[in-house]
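Hey team,

Filing this mostly as a record. A colleague (T.K.) asked me to run one chain through the structure pipeline before their review meeting, and I want the input and output archived in the tracker in case anyone asks later how it was produced. No errors, nothing strange. Just documentation.

Input sequence:
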Amino acid sequence: MINLENFYENFKYYGNDVVIQIIDMFVEDHKEDLKMIGQNINNKDFLSLRFNAHHLKGSIANFMDPETTELSGKLEEMGETKTEAGLTEIYNELQAATQALLEELLKHRNKITSHTHSYS
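Output structure:
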């Protein structure tokens, strides 16, 4: 769940066009990021898992969603420590949380495009 207060605070100096672009980039990129993380887990490629989870965590951090940020951070840490136990479960939780975040972002994007909303 997006922390709206922090979300609006984070983007208060940007115009709506920039916010929409950032949301659109996430919409386009998140599937590939999740696919790569899934492949890393299947291949037990912990170095790439760490890198790809960190990349996704950075993308998600823009949206002030603590659940997806925490889950991607756990996968990053598990890649760092080469921890296999629980990887699939955390990945499945991350997929579900990312889908919920995506739906929430698309609602905000629609709100922004249909109304003039100021972030200041």
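Quick notes for T.K.: The chain has five helices and no strands. The radius of gyration is 15 Å.
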